[in-house]
Every structure is written in C-alpha cells, then in structure tokens.
Write a structure and sequence with these properties.
This protein is mostly helical. Helix content is 86%, strand content 0%. The chain has six helices and no strands. The chain is globular. The protein starts with a helix and ends with a helix.
Length: 191
C-alpha cells in the first residue's frame, strides 16, 4: 500500500493550483478574516478530495474519455473564471468588492475549486490501478489541499495591499496560466 508520506507528496503536488488560486483570491479580498481563509481552504480541499474518488470509481468505465478531455474541461473552466476575474478587476471600483452577493462568491469559488481539481480525477484513475486505500488517499489529499489553500489565502491577503487593484488582474492571469499549463502538458504529452 502507498504510504502516507507518498500520499502527502501527491496531495502537495495536486494542491499547487489551489494554492495559486487562493493566493489570488486572498490578494483581492483584503477584508477577509481567518474564517474566510478556512472556508476557501475547506472548499478547495473538499473538491480536491472528491475528484480522485470520482476518477477512481469511474476510471475503469471512462478511462479513455477522462484521459482525452480532462485537460480541455480544466482549461475551459479556468479560462472562464480567470477572464471573469480580470474583467471584474478592470471594471470595478475599489469599494465594489464588499457589495458582491455571497451566493455568487461561493459559486465562483466552487467553480475555481472544481477547475483546479480536475487533474486529481486522472490521479484517481491511476489510484484505481494501485494498491491504495481510496478513503485514506482522499483524506490525505483533501487535508493537504485545505492547509495549502488556507495558507495561500492568508498569504495573499498580506501581499494584496502591495499589488493594489492589480491583484485581481494578476489572479485572473494566474488561473488562465494554470489552465494553459494543464492543456499544454496534456497536448505535448500526447504528441
């Protein structure tokens, strides 16, 4: 069985995208509190833990389909969320951030978390072929991502004042770059 340290390293590598996204979110939300950072971390951790389980369970039936399209789905979602963040940062006044409805903010956060965790579904397919306890793997991956994303949100909050209104633009470009990197890795690996 794969060891906890190996699963922790896997969780750390899968959480890089969540760290970058939460760093950008923390930089744009200067009034966030510790509880906000924890909420962001838990949402990212939940989806990062859920997608390997989905990949594991569907891996045998949909292996070819998942491998063929996961990078396009991740790219599309990250491009859409990143472009929206850039547009919003360019158009909004500095005081408009507090006026955002909480439901819209949650759904945007969930969409970002799903987009950054799609690659974990492919890892779940790989876990199905190994002697791995799925529940332990998902718990470790989700736990590591929760800690990393919470830390990214807190760090982003401290870095954000130095970036000013460009934090949202930077965060949007980071998401688009993550999506482009996922797409490039898969397309260059297929060639």
């Amino acid at each position: 069985m794969t060891g906890i340290l190996t699963l922790g390293a896997l969780g750390a590598s899968l959480s890089v995208d969540a760290f970058a996204a939460s760093l950008g979110k923390g930089a744009t939300e200067q009034k966030s509190r510790w509880s906000d950072a924890m909420r962001v971390g838990v949402v990212f951790g939940f989806f990062e833990a859920l997608t390997p389980a989905i990949g594991y369970l569907l891996g045998f039936m949909l292996n070819d389909w998942i491998a063929s399209y996961d990078h396009w789905v991740a790219f599309g979602l990250l491009l859409a969320v990143g472009a929206y963040m850039i547009r919003e940062a360019v158009q909004k006044e500095d005081t408009a951030a507090a006026d955002e409805p909480s439901n819209l903010g949650f759904w945007r956060l969930a969409a970002t978390a799903i987009a950054t965790s799609i690659d974990a579904a492919a890892v779940g397919v790989s876990l199905a072929l190994m002697d791995v306890n799925l529940w332990v793997a998902c718990a470790v991956i989700g736990g590591v991502t929760t800690v990393v994303a919470t830390g990214g949100m807190i760090l982003g909050r401290h870095v954000g004042p130095y970036l000013g209104r460009y934090a949202g633009i930077l965060g949007g470009f980071v998401l688009v770059a993550i999506g482009g990197s996922i797409l490039f890795q898969h397309l260059s690996g297929a060639a």
